[in-house]
Write a structure and sequence with these properties.
binds 2-deoxy-2-amino glucitol-6-phosphate, 25 strands, Rossmann fold, single chain, alpha/beta, 7-stranded antiparallel β-sheet, about 35% helix, globular, 8-stranded antiparallel β-sheet
């Protein structure tokens, strides 16, 4: 999951590209790289194993430039080093490339190129691209056509799924496969990047490249020309009017994770006529006995699990499949509604199998990202409308997804949700204020604990999974979430004196599990609408939306643990916001 950005413009200020590169750090922050080029001057390249610092951004913004390409990296092939940061270039420094994805046969290509005398500077798969372009390029004087024909020959050597931008002199070529590239145009400028929202905020019109499509664009003294190709046949794309989204980069909180936890007060933005229509459609389809598959990854998988339990209350069975396992089911799922939950809409584990599944099933995407790949795959969409989620740790998108399940549940019950939603909104600030002190105590007691367990039964089981994921991904404390009833089938062996266990929900059976844990020395943190003397720490949660209020407690606990350990919850080690590689 890397970020790609490029600009061709008569405007000589590269600030749009530089600020865009900062924005794309959510897609990968192992390293950054950017190339600036003013026609007639030498290229300027800056790359480092860090974020693009404000100092370096300011320094680079003083250069004049007509053509830029940039990249934020989440390492797949080759360690986190400056040499492995993009862009990569050919030996003659004519071809520069930034890429997102994986070239599966790069080692064979690299070996062949080395045998031809090519010297490599990095361990990456990407670096074979500029050398291949250099190897096959034939200069006939028509730079756009020459670059296009060269790319056709280069593709013959490559295996894998990737998107990239190659720059040669005053020309760029962009190719898209799986990993997103959106193109924006405005007066005398073409701007492209991995994030369609960013493109729309910086362009009058935009177009999202489809798999296999190529853009070639060049700038001369007089104008900028751009041509689009599919299977190397030129076509005219249908540009859409850009929709500006709020630039919520202003963050008055210490971290985006904290800001986004508090953003959860606003679930009401999901209640749009389009979303309600889609929920009614889903309700009717389920009432008519349509087969249902729920699929997602990570936190979104936990939200899918919540939907599974909500539907069970109505006697509706759904198959729930992890995104990374979905490819095993492509031959056995048909005539179903496949509900796909994905905050980014770009999770590769979902995109690959759904490219096949969408032919024989109805795709129903629940996402926070309009115009994302999974949104464009869908027959029906529910947009979470919860604003850009920056922190790698997903919080508000999760609650929004859970709220969609509640909307579906209320629709199936024929109940109105407004009163409960109003209660939630009115209670939100008071509730958080009341639980912070308890969470401070729990954090101080357990921030150095080697392990932490989360248990919940039935509809609270997914929240135990989610609570453990939040804690481990931002604090690096080993955490495990599971169904309370599973304790005695093995995990109870890990409960010894002082081991913290978070207990969710209020049924008698979970209290029994809590007592079993207590008997063996575990320390209990109860998060429930029903108090019980068995708990050592207790956070009382309203009965209305008990699961969402409970999740907020777990999110705040994870955030506090990360802060106590001096960690940045927005950019945890080894992770990135959107997993666009399998
Ligand atoms: C959640 O905190 C993680 N960042 C991760 O599990 C995430 O939920 C998962 O990668 C799925 O992402 P998606 O919702 O964008 O598909």
């Amino acid at each position: 999951m890397c970020g790609i950005i490029a600009r061709i413009s008569k405007d000589l200020s590269p600030i749009k590209t530089l600020k865009g590169l900062k924005f794309l750090e959510y897609r990968g922050y192992d390293s950054y790289g950017v190339l600036l080029h003013k026609l007639g001057s030498d290229e300027v390249v800056s790359k480092n194993i860090s974020e693009l610092s404000e100092f370096e951004l300011d320094r680079l913004s003083k250069f004049e430039s007509n053509v830029e390409i940039g990249h934020t990296r989440w390492a797949t092939h080759g360690g986190v080093t400056k040499e492995n940061a993009h862009p990569h270039w050919s030996c003659d420094k004519k071809f520069y490339v930034v890429m997102n994805g994986i070239i599966e046969n790069y080692l064979d290509i690299k070996s062949d190129l080395k045998n031809c005398g090519v010297e490599f500077n990095s361990e990456t798969d990407t670096e074979v691209l500029p050398h291949l372009f250099s190897k096959y390029f034939k200069d006939t004087g028509n730079v756009e056509n020459d670059l296009l024909l060269t790319s056709k020959r280069v593709f013959e050597d490559l295996k894998g799924e990737f998107s990239f931008v190659v720059k040669y002199e005053n020309c760029i070529l962009a190719y898209k496969n799986i990993n997103p590239i959106a193109i924006g145009v405005c007066d005398d400028e073409l701007f492209l990047c991995s994030d369609s929202g960013l493109v729309q905020n910086n362009s009058d019109k935009f177009y999202v490249l489809n798999d296999g499509e190529v853009l070639v664009s060049s700038i001369s003294e007089n104008n900028i020309s751009s041509h689009f190709y599919c299977d190397f046949k030129e076509f005219s794309p249908e540009f859409k009017e850009s929709v500006k989204s709020e630039c919520d980069d202003e963050n008055s909180f210490p971290t985006y994770m904290e800001k986004e936890i508090y953003d959860q007060k606003n679930l009401r933005s999901i209640i749009t006529s389009e979303n309600l229509s889609s929920i009614k459609y889903l309700k009717n389809a389920l009432r008519n006995g349509r087969k249902l598959v729920l699929t997602a990854a990570g936190t979104s998988y936990h939200a899918a699990y919540v939907m599974h339990y909500e539907l069970l209350k109505h006697g509706i069975m759904s198959s729930i499949i992890l995104a990374s396992e979905l490819q095993n089911y492509t031959k056995v799922i048909s005539d179903s509604i496949i509900v796909v939950l994905s905050q980014s809409g770009e999770t590769a584990d979902l995109i690959y199998p759904l490219r096949e599944l969408r032919d024989s099933n109805e795709i129903f995407t629940i996402t926070n990202t309009a115009n994302s790949t999974l949104a464009r795959f869908a027959n029906r969409i529910i947009l979470l409308n919860c604003g850009r989620e920056v922190s790698v740790a997903s919080t508000k998108a999760f609650s929004a997804q859970v709220f969609v399940s509640h909307l579906l549940n209320y629709e199936l019950c024929g109940k109105e949700i407004n009163d409960d939603l109003t209660f939630y909104e009115n209670e939100f600030d008071r509730f958080i204020g009341n639980c912070l002190n308890i969470l401070d105590d729990v954090c101080e007691k357990f921030y150095s604990a080697p392990d932490c367990f989360f248990i919940g039964r039935n509809e609270f089981h997914p929240f135990a999974l989610e609570g453990s994921l939040k804690l481990k991904e931002v604090s690096y404390i080993h955490a495990e979430g599971f169904a309370g009833g599973e304790l005695k089938h093995g995990t109870l062996a890990l409960i010894t004196d002082g081991v913290p266990v978070v207990v969710l929900g209020n049924c008698d059976e979970i209290v029994s599990n809590a007592i079993e844990i207590k008997t063996r020395g575990g320390v209990l943190i109860g998060v429930s609408s029903v108090e019980n003397e068995v708990y050592d720490y207790f956070v009382k949660v309203p009965e209305v939306f008990e699961d969402i209020f409970g999740t907020i407690v777990l999110q705040l606990l994870a955030l506090k643990m990360a802060e106590r350990l001096g960690l940045n919850p927005d950019k945890p080690r080894n992770l990135a916001k959107s997993v666009t590689v399998k």
